[in-house]
Amino acid sequence: MNLIKSSAPQPIAMGLHNIAYSYRSTLLAGAVTLGLVFAFTPRLLQDAPPTGHSSILPLALSTAQAADIRSANVATAMMRSAERWISVKIQPGDRLAQVFKQAGLDTQQLNKVLALGGEAAKLARLYPGKTLKIKMGAEGRLQELLYNITPTRTLHIKEQGDAASFMANTVEHPLERRIARAAGTISSSLYLAGQKAGLPDALTMEMANIFGWDIDFATDVQRGDNFTVLYEEFYAQGEKVRAGEILAAEFTNGDKTLQAIRFNDGKGHASYYTPDGMGMRKAFLRTPVEFSRISSGFSLGRRHPILNHIRSHKGVDYAAPTGTPVKAAGDGTVSFAGNKSGYGKTVILQHGKQYSTLYAHLSRYPEGLNEGDRVEQGQVIGYVGQSGLATGPHLHYEFRVNDQHRNPLTIKLTQAEPIPSQEKSEFAREAKTLMDQLTAFKRTLTARTP
Ligand SMILES: [Zn+2]
């Protein structure tokens, strides 16, 4: 473990203040010897009660002034003086007992802390990379302990009375939502351009899903295509916890520019719309599986003049590893699920009267999938395999309109529903706000690169 941050002793009385001073000079000397920079500010000398999210630690505020105390001697020297906060960064294999021992804390206190149970039980197994903050009293007495169970929850243990007992509680830190922006131009792949733009991989995938109805990201994307994205980020205690959803995005593919805005319909259902309120989502997914490549395209074929047999491929083959989930291309009903000679394990979905889709060579079906079941678009209806006549794992996918095979790669997908009329004004307001922000962001980009 490393004792990474440290504040000066807290002057609680005149006498102690003097001690604190002399201690400070000793430490400074030590720090200089170690080649460390250790600055003190009055703020560091103040104690703040760990309640509410603005909380806690003078330490948390003082990263810049904090020294990297790795020397056991310096650390031990600190232990002997009056009360102060220390911060311990957990290393692999660290246990609380070691932390207590190295910090010079009383082991009887350790037992009391571990005996608290409840959330305090989390201290029995410390996670590397996390930080323990300990407020020490004189003679190695534990006064308080803080441990971030998650970025939004901190375990707080505080001594009761005269260190005879401890009390544990959890402090919740509210998540703060911020809007982040990213922009990129594709030179080799969308994935890499997303990374370069600082967009989390999951959101790059999400962007491909949002525009995937209109752009085939496997075949259509070209060098120079570019994107701009506004998305959510959530922070707790000033630190980024995770990314949220894409709020607005623009994608330019060749000479075609598409825009999408996320809108929550008030029934807790969010989806993406064009700025004029048309659904981005179509009645059918362009591709029902995440694939690595199209291993065989669609061809109706014709009769071979000599051999007199027909070579056709009435679907598309998507090469993908065995076990890759296969999704229902649209809302519908399972009209067939079972073995179909050369097709192997096969699922057929009926979508309304006109449309049906077929998924073949599956390795298995999801548990509980039966003929007659209603399925929703995107629902997993099978897993890629190579059952039937298949030379390798792939999904064979067919799309039929009125029982006629159509090319799933080129068929014009019908539009899903637009914004309901009663939500239109609300949507228009939100769309304008987001599009204004997106435009403003793009302006700063062009200003930077003339
Ligand atoms: Zn095929």
Q: What does this molecule look like?
A:
By secondary structure, the protein is an alpha+beta fold. It has helices at residues 14-33, 72-79, 96-103, 107-114, 190-196, 201-211, 424-448; strands at 2-6, 84-89, 131-136, 142-150, 153-160, 165-172, 176-185, 226-236, 239-253, 256-264, 270-273, 293-296, 316-319, 325-327, 332-339, 345-351, 355-364, 374-375, 380-384, 394-401, 404-406. It folds into 3 domains: 2-172, Nuclear Transport Factor 2, Chain: A (Roll); 176-282 and 420-448, Nuclear Transport Factor 2, Chain: A, CATH 3.10.450; 293-406, Glucose Permease (Domain IIA). The protein has 7 helices and 21 strands. Strands 12, 13, 14, 15, 16, 17, 18, 19, 20 and 21 form a 10-stranded antiparallel β-sheet that branches. The chain has a 6-stranded antiparallel β-sheet with strand order 1-2-3-4-5-6, with helices on one face. It has a 5-stranded antiparallel β-sheet with strand order 7-8-9-10-11. Mean pLDDT is 79; it is low at 1-79.
